[in-house]
Write a structure and sequence with these properties.
Length: 550
């Protein structure tokens, strides 16, 4: 069977999962298939052509293809025969960008060899394998047609890697993700069994505009948007542990203004509602957002000024404060709800939320590169955020954030391109992936790191527990955390973020005692690049969980 026919088998137009009920799959196969389906849905949401198939004795998955005499043995023979170059000791295919093995089932990830350099698309392929008496054989696969992206420079800037074999496999895999998603610069970290086992950075911290060009390194400082929110439930639970509040207390006891939904004046809004996004507090409108976003340095509007103008009657930003629903009845994401929890903590600790977090969380964890304030950070390490746009010919354009969203000049200093805003607890942490990994290690170690106890194990467990609500993606809502499922359908916890020119993802699997972080200095006009980083986190965790020498 020719390579063309084998490729066609992956990339037929349209997608139908056929005859799945007739397939008798082992539990391991079911787990793999579930993960592949989840990835397929993600690709569909990104409007990328994706195709999936599963084999039994005959090729199934596309009913309109069954009239051709294609058996799984034909496709398998074609793949094994024609992709023989670069075979490994485990799989007779080109060296994959990643291999995940568990039990008698494995998944390989790689990109189809590019023969047509003029094509605007490349193909991402996964194969699902099962180990039998005579070795490994294919039981299924998926192909994804994605636009060819612009290559970015790659640099490995940390000695905390998992070794040359992991770097050789993961570097091209991650580079492909960057090319496909249009990521200017990227930081990645994997934590396993309490230590960093992978820390690599790629691409550019600063491009030609505004210049001068500078590579992304592990020391580059990135705005991580809503992944900053992790610090708020930590600070709140520290007060719970000290007996200074209960999660079901009325927040009005702790703030100098009344917080009540006028549609539901008798229903208290509690700390728990704020941290689970069920308070009925709405998101700010576009006019308010544009008014508070500032470039060039720390916001001239203080946090105190913003909160009072947002929550006090007739305040400058008080329009459209509440939704119609009853507090506690629905999960609606709210930056202002998280900021209100941080503001209320200030009244308990009698200092700014910034200084409290620095003293009680960041300093004990020795997170020296993490700050809410630009003034505390060296300009030479700051990154510039970029708006990313794919043109009709498939090429990518990158514009500095203030140019892409504010239509301001692309020239200027790196500091002049820094984005800031007054409601900093909800999304204004500047940090590095390696520094923020210390927060991840604290979570995985039950609230303690290097002798510093930040939370009790009970508080960590509470953050990592379903609240009974889900977000618009169907993910579980924890106490200040998101709860999607990983590639194998297992619950993970963490947060991701999206902002003008920045994206981030921070996720932990408590079952495997692993976590992964991905920070990028890019985003699209629809603020969706974070999904690519969430997916990368899942693949990194899967890789290091099932890592083999090959």
């Amino acid at each position: 069977m020719s390579k063309t026919l084998a490729l066609t088998a992956f990339l037929l137009s349209g997608f139908v999962i056929g005859q799945m009920a007739a397939q008798q799959l082992s539990p391991e196969q079911e787990e793999v298939w579930k993960g592949e389906q989840a990835y397929f849905r993600f690709l569909q949401e990104k409007n990328l052509k994706s195709y999936m198939a599963l084999w039994d004795d005959r090729f199934v998955g596309w009913p309109d293809y069954k009239q051709l005499p294609v058996h799984k043995s034909d496709i398998q023979a074609s793949v094994l025969e024609e992709l023989q170059s670069g075979q490994t000791s485990v799989f007779p295919t080109p060296k994959p960008e990643a291999i995940t093995i568990f039990g008698d089932v494995a998944v390989t990830y790689y990109f189809w060899p590019e023969t047509d350099k003029t094509s605007s698309h490349v193909y991402r392929i996964t194969h699902t394998w099962q180990k039998g008496p005579n070795g490994w054989h294919i039981i299924g696969g998926m192909g994804c047609e994605v636009p060819r992206g612009r290559s970015a420079d790659s640099v490995s800037s940390s000695d905390q890697s998992a070794g040359d074999s992991s770097s050789d496999a993961l570097d091209p895999f991650i580079q492909r993700i960057m090319d496909d998603a249009g990521i200017p610069g990227l930081q990645t970290v994997v934590v396993k069994q309490g230590r960093i086992v992978w820390s690599h950075s790629y691409g550019s911290a600063v491009l030609d505009a505004p210049g001068p060009p500078r590579r992304m390194t592990d020391d580059s400082i990135v705005l991580i948007a809503s992944t900053s929110k992790l610090l708020v439930p930590i600070a709140v639970l520290q007060q719970v542990e000290k007996g200074k509040l209960s999660l079901d207390d009325d927040i009005n006891r702790y703030v100098p203004f009344t917080v009540r939904n006028p549609k539901w004046p008798d229903v208290p809004i509690t700390w728990r509602m704020l941290l689970t996004h069920t308070s009925s507090i709405d998101e700010m409108d576009e006019e308010t957002l544009n008014a508070i976003n500032i470039y060039g340095g720390d916001s001239p509007i203080t946090f105190d000024e913003y909160m009072k103008s947002r929550f006090q009657p007739n305040g400058r930003f008080s329009a459209n404060l509440f939704r119609q629903g009853k507090p506690g009845s629905e999960r609606i994401y709210s930056n202002d709800g998280i900021s209100l929890a941080a503001f209320a903590v200030e009244t308990i600790v009698h200092e700014s939320f910034d200084s409290y977090v620095q003293r009680e969380i960041l300093a004990p964890l020795r997170m020296r590169a993490t700050s809410y304030s630009l003034a505390n950070l060296p300009a030479a390490r700051l990154t510039v955020g970029y708006g990313v746009e794919r043109k009709q010919d498939g090429s990518l354009s990158f514009s500095p954030s203030r140019t892409f969203w504010e239509h301001q000049p692309a020239s200027g200093t790196v500091m002049e391109h820094q984005l800031t805003f007054p409601d900093y607890p909800s999304g204004r942490i500047y940090t590095t992936a390696t520094d923020y990994a210390r927060l991840m290690m604290m979570f995985l170690n039950g609230g303690t790191l290097d002798g510093a106890q930040i939370l009790s194990q009970a508080s960590v467990n509470l953050m990592f527990s379903p609240s009974g609500y889900r977000n618009v993606d169907g993910w579980q809502q924890g106490l200040g955390l998101n709860g999607p499922e990983d590639l194998r359908g297992r619950q993970v916890w963490g947060h991701d973020g999206q902002e003008r020119g920045y994206s981030s993802a921070f996720y932990i699997n408590p079952q495997t005692h692993m976590g992964a972080i991905a920070f990028a200095n890019g985003n699209y006009a629809d603020y969706s690049m974070n999904y690519s980083l969430v997916d990368l986190d899942f693949h990194l965790m899967s890789w290091f969980e099932g890592q083999t020498k090959h």
